[in-house]
Every structure is written in structure tokens, then in C-alpha cells.
Design a protein that fits this description.
Elements: H1 2-8, H2 17-26, H3 34-51, H4 58-72, E1 76-77, H5 90-96, E2 98-99, H6 101-114, E3 119-122, E4 129-132, E5 140-142, E6 148-150, H7 152-163, E7 176-177, H8 179-196, H9 200-213, H10 218-230, H11 234-247, H12 254-264
Parallel strand pairs: 1-2
Antiparallel strand pairs: 3-4, 3-7, 5-6
Helix pairs in contact: 1-2, 3-4, 3-6, 8-9, 9-10, 10-11, 11-12
């Protein structure tokens, strides 16, 4: 996992989001050629450049990207099998032209960066969107829904649709997220997918990658300890769960964790 650490252990603005995403994918797809998929993003960008008008107003750039990505190439959100792990691996998203909001957004962010039209990720609860980097852009792009343009009111309605209840859009819901946070969210998605599938070795890999991004993160340490417990690796489980309690001595689940530690003794 040294290559992932090298790719992410640097100032956030210097993290190459596509490369880091493909590095973690390579741990699952051992024959993956990272340069091949970087080149695929470069090729898509060159085709979009040919279609851009001379005067690049933001909405014109968005419209041009949308037309090529969604109409010409057929990129789409995977509504049929949202929790297919392939939706969270960038190589599969580029290959199959299918993904979930955050991975499709990474494709879009990488293309926008190559067009010198920088955009940022917005990690709303339950959904991921993007917007142009300048503060007063006034609109957002929902890549999962074929690049639909959203305004603040639309974002609130989208949240209410996702959660099936009345919700108020808190200002921090629309705060841009870092490259590290984007990678963390993708890895967390895979972590819980593998948990639900009971694919524990793969889940463990995701936690290890998350701990490279966020060293000594108490929740990841706890979850790794619980996973070791599930795998009957008592010594490793004990070490992690004791570390968790030392970091968060007042954790809400401290009694449950102490009971597990006592049981292992």
C-alpha cells in the first residue's frame, strides 16, 4: 500500500485524484494499467476541447461536457445496482461508463481540470454533486443525473427526495470537500459494501487504506478491531479496541467494547 500512501501523503491540492483512485483499484484489479485509464481521461478531454465554443462561459462549458459524456459516450448513473462494488472503482466506471454519484463526479472533475475549468466536490448527505470552483458560481452539477444543473433550492429538494422527509439544507452541506475527503468517501462506500457482502478481507483492505488517509482515526481503528474479532484474530482485535478506548475514553459504545475485551481475555 506504499504507492497509495505516496500518492496521498502530500498537500491536498497536489493529490492527483484520478491516479490515487486507480492505485487503490489496482489492489483489486491486479493487472490494471493505470496509465491506460489516465490516457482515456485525456482522450475524452481532447474530444470535448474540439467542441468547446471560443468564448467559454461556465454554462456553455458544462453543456459541452454533458453532451459528450452523457449523450455521445453514454455515461450514466447506476440506478439498477447501486451497491455493485464496480461502481466505486474508477477503472470500471470509465470502462463501463456507469457509476455512482461520487465516482462519476471524479471523472467529471478530472475532465474539468484538464480543460482549465476547475470544479470542486460537494459532499451532501446521501448524495455527491460538484460546482465550478469560483465562490459565486450560483449553481451545481448533478453528475449522477446526466449533469443536471441545480440551484440551492433544487439541492434541498434532492435531499428531501433521498431521505423521503422534509429537510432543511444546512449551509455546510454545500461546503467543498478536499481530495482526501473524496477518496475517503469512496473507500468508505466500498468498506460498507464489503461488510454487507461479508467479504471481510476486502473490507479490511478498505480500512487499511482509510487509515493511510486518516491515521489513528478512532472509528476506523474500532472497526478494524471489530473485524479482527469477527476473524477470530484476538491479539490484533484486542490491540485495536484498546487503542480505540485510549483515543475515545468517553465513547458511547465504550461499555460494549470493554465487554468484548473482557470476553477475549
Amino acid at each position: 500500500m506504499q504507492s497509495f500512501l505516496q500518492a496521498t501523503n502530500q498537500p491536498d491540492h497536489q493529490i492527483n485524484l484520478a491516479k490515487a483512485s486507480l492505485i487503490y483499484a489496482k489492489y483489486e484489479y491486479l493487472q490494471l494499467d493505470i496509465d491506460e485509464y489516465i490516457q482515456a481521461l485525456d482522450t475524452i478531454t481532447e474530444e470535448i476541447k474540439k467542441r468547446l465554443p471560443e468564448t467559454r462561459y461556465p454554462l456553455q462549458v458544462i453543456k459541452t461536457i454533458n453532451q459528450y459524456l452523457f449523450e455521445d459516450l453514454g455515461f450514466q448513473g447506476n440506478n439498477k445496482d447501486y451497491y455493485d462494488p464496480r461502481n466505486s472503482y474508477l477503472n470500471e466506471v470509465i470502462e463501463r461508463r456507469t457509476g455512482i454519484p461520487i465516482t462519476l463526479s471524479v471523472v467529471y472533475l478530472e475532465i474539468a481540470k484538464r480543460l482549465n475549468f476547475p470544479m470542486v466536490g460537494i459532499g451532501m448527505p446521501g448524495h455527491f454533486i460538484i460546482r465550478p470552483e469560483f465562490e459565486d458560481a450560483g449553481f451545481f452539477v448533478d453528475v449522477f443525473n446526466e449533469g443536471e444543473i441545480l440551484f440551492k433550492e433544487d439541492c434541498e429538494l434532492r435531499l428531501q427526495t433521498i431521505y423521503q422527509k422534509s429537510l432543511t439544507l444546512e449551509p455546510h452541506f454545500l461546503t467543498p470537500v478536499s481530495n482526501q475527503q473524496i477518496l475517503g468517501r469512496m473507500l468508505t462506500n466500498l468498506k460498507y459494501i464489503y461488510l454487507n457482502r461479508q467479504e471481510y478481507p476486502k473490507m479490511l483492505r478498505m480500512i487499511e487504506l482509510l487509515l493511510l488517509l486518516f491515521p489513528n482515526h478512532p472509528i476506523e481503528i474500532r472497526d478494524r478491531g471489530l473485524l479482527y474479532y469477527q476473524l477470530r484474530q484476538w491479539e490484533k482485535a484486542t490491540a485495536d479496541l484498546q487503542l480505540y478506548l485510549s483515543i475515545l475514553p468517553t465513547a458511547q459504545d465504550r461499555e460494549t467494547i470493554r465487554q468484548l475485551l473482557q470476553k477475549m481475555r
